[in-house]
Each structure stands twice: as C-alpha cells, then as structure tokens.
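MODEL INPUT / OUTPUT PAIR
PAIR INDEX: 1
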Amino acid sequence: MARSKASSTFDSSSPADTARLAGLFASRLKGGETVFLEGPIGSGKTFFVRELAAALGAKKLPVSASFNLMRAYGGRLKLYHFDLFRVGEADLENVGLDEYIGRADGITAVEWPGPAAGIFSGVGPMIIEFRLAGGDRREIQVSCGESRFAELGKIEEEWLKK
C-alpha cells in the first residue's frame, strides 16, 4: 500500500538549529509550494519564516505579519508571508490568499492557517508544526504529501549530518 503522506520530526536545540533547518528547506524549494506553520505563540513560526526568507536571498527580512496580513519578500524565489491570526473565515475573501497559492515565482507561507483550510483542499500544503520543548528547544514536525517524500528525506539526511 502506497503512503500518501510523509512526516519527519526535527529536534532543534537552539535558534541556530531552527535557522539551519529553514536553510535546508529553502535549498529544496522550487516555487509554487505552500507551507502552513502551526504552533503556539512564541514557538518559532515567524523566526522560521524570517530564516527561510534570508536563505532564499531576501534583503528585507520578515517580522510578525499580525498587523499586516501579507507581506512579500524578494530573493531567489519570492516569499509571500501571510499571518491569519486575526482573520476569521468570513474575512478571508478580502485577504487575497487564493491569488498566491501555487505561484511558480514564489513560496506561500501561512501562519495560523486555520481559517484558510477550505481554500487549500487539493493543494497539499506542507505543514510545519512547532512544539515548545523547554527553553530554546523546539520539536518541529513536518508533514507533506507524497510528491514531496524524496525532498523531505533529503532534508532529513542533511539535518542528521550536524
């Protein structure tokens, strides 16, 4: 029976580890990917997006987008950073998120993606869940569809080379 979903867990012991992981992901992104970032406040979602943007070559780096629902950053690929913390399903139509899904020129990163779940049916976003593990430690669980199995495996191999 073929698997339809891949999953890996990365143990980060510091912000430097999390930055390294973001860099490994950036090196494998081709454009058109959608990434959901989930986890409690302060778990590292925005930090990961900032480091992802840096690894993609952005000159201006992301800050929390909570008061700006979307910001775009340039680099090897554009990074479209959405933060839906203050958005309800009824407001989602006005955000314009659906216009960025699958764009070949960039990556769409969505923090607090709950209200947008319906938009993404069939798109197969990569889900990165951040869990607090004490101090600066984080457990970062990554799930993706079968089309990303090989890439996730390569990231995991590189990660283990610490």
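PAIR INDEX: 2
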Amino acid sequence: MILTVGNTKGGVGKTTLALNIAIARALAGRDVWLIDGDRQGTAQTAISIRLESGHLPGIACAQYSDGATLRSQVQQQLTKFDDIIIDAGGRDSTALRAALVLSDVLLIPFQPRSYDVWALNDIALLVDEVRSVRDGLRAYAVLNCADPGESSSDNAEAAAAVADVPQFEYLDTPIRRRKIFANAAGQGLSVLEINPKDKKASEELNSLVKALF
C-alpha cells in the first residue's frame, strides 16, 4: 500500500504521524519505505537518529521534495516494499500532488482549531483533481493533537465539521495531545517503542493503523 500523510495546512503533525505509522508497520513485519516529501527533511532526520542509535527494525528513508523525482523513484522501486509511507509537506506542492496521484490512501491530519478545519476545503479540492484523472484514492481525515478530554466540545465540533466535506471520511480514531509522541519522534522512535510505555498513546496509534490497513 502507498499511504500519504498530507495536508495543505502546516503544523498539523503530519511528520510525527507518518513516522509512527511507518514504524508500526515495520514492527508488524512489513518492509517499509518512508519518503520525506518536505524540504525541511524532518522525517529523514528522525530516521537518521534512529539509525545512529541502532534501533531495530530499520526503516528505509529517502527525501524527494520535487514531484517529478518523487513520482519516478516510487514507480521504479514500488515492488521492493510492502508499504510506502509518504510524508508530504504542509502546502500545495508538486511533491504533494505527485504523492496523491501515486497513493492508495490519503490520511489528512487536522487539529481541533478553526484554521485547521477551514483548510480542509483546500485539500478536498486536490482530492477532486486527483480523482478526476484516476480512480481509487481513498481519503480519510483524523483528528490529531486532539484535546485529552473524552468529552471535549472542540474535538466534537472539529469532527462534525468533516461531515461537511464529502471528499473524505472521518476516522473516529483520534490521536490525542500527548507529550510522548514528540519525545518518541525526537529519538526516531514510535510510541510503541519508547520507555516508559504510554498505554493510551499506543492504543490510539494501533487503532489508527488498524483502521488504515
């Protein structure tokens, strides 16, 4: 499967989610390739830290912020991997557009803030464009960095807003705002690996991965 974690809105936690998903799949025995489609190269930096620290399983990673290069590299190496996870930069870029054309699934993280909800319409237009030239792209929105409270009105209002965007489906597997996600990513790890364990964070990630795959 090719999965893109993308949004035209920056600061929604795409890289952290992409890293966690890629590692979760590798821990499940899949041969995973993580592609960093952002010029900032944060995902590649995290994987470099992971490699230098000797953490296993290893994750193949490459950075392609140019759409043409990303497209050609994925097409050439597609059969070498079970899963390809693309971390697309937070803007409408050639890399994001190339990733969408290649992908089976688009995961759109958004936070419970008005700006994030309003920005969903921008990525929805890109989904329409991709579907006009090819069939089969499945698009899902997930609440990321959600308020910790189970009954948060901001979470509920943000989730309800997705119902007004028909281009994608809301996944009821929110990832709540927990410091352990940032702590783990800074070490090139997923929340499934870092010690001490955070059971709730691990359960949230596992629920999201199960829904996607």
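PAIR 2 NOTE: The radius of gyration is 16 Å.
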